[in-house]
């Protein structure tokens, strides 16, 4: 990847390429290890204003039913009302409300994250990973970022006490974003 020295070259509308992006999460399990997962179905768009990065916008929609932790039983439990309640809340959304360029390659995107019908403002730091033209002539940009939330803030409160102390699932969940987006004509 090549880092753009002139952000104005990036100005335009982009669609997140779901087959080359990952939106995932990490949570502690049984207080001794971490479980990683991802949403296999999502879509999103980014409108980059390279001349005025503060005007950049982004929105993402995740399909809760597409959750994948590599364990079908756990995935099934995560879609119940104990966790994400896919029947009543089939999507998780993020809609940006502001953007800030921190330095040449780092940005902060603030927006409304809605999980299980509860909306809270979060700020996600993103690193610009570069721009490239793929073999099909499409301009691609890459961004990576992460943010830690407390799942209880979104009504995701189920847990089980452990015999040895502690709980089965941590309250803190790290959201992970590895984004490849394709510029639209």
Automatic annotation (TrEMBL):
A Pfam cross-reference name: YceI
InterPro entries for this protein: Lipid/polyisoprenoid-bd_YceI, TTHA0802/YceI-like_sf
Lipid/polyisoprenoid-binding YceI-like domain mapped to chain residues: 13-182
SMART domains attached to this UniProt entry: YceI
Family: Belongs to the UPF0312 family.
PANTHER family recorded: PROTEIN YCEI
Protein's recorded name: Polyisoprenoid-binding protein
Organism name: Lentzea aerocolonigenes
């Amino acid at each position: 990847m090549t880092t753009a020295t002139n952000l104005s070259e990036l100005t335009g509308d982009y669609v997140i390429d779901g087959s080359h992006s990952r939106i995932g999460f990490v949570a502690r399990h049984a207080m001794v290890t971490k479980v990683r997962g991802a949403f296999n179905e999502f879509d999103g768009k980014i409108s980059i204003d390279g001349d005025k990065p503060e005007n950049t916008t982004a929105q993402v929609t995740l399909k809760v039913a597409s959750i994948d932790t590599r364990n079908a039983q756990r995935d099934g439990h995560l879609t119940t009302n104990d966790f994400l309640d896919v029947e009543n809340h089939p999507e998780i959304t993020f809609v940006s409300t502001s953007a800030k360029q921190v330095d040449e390659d780092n940005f902060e995107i603030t927006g409304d994250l809605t999980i299980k019908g509860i909306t809270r403002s979060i700020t996600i730091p993103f690193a610009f990973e570069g721009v490239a033209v793929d073999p099909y002539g499409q301009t691609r940009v890459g961004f990576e970022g992460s943010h830690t939330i407390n799942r209880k803030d979104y009504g995701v409160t189920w847990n089980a006490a452990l015999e040895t102390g502690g709980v089965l699932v941590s309250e803190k969940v790290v959201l992970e974003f590895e984004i490849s987006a394709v510029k639209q004509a």
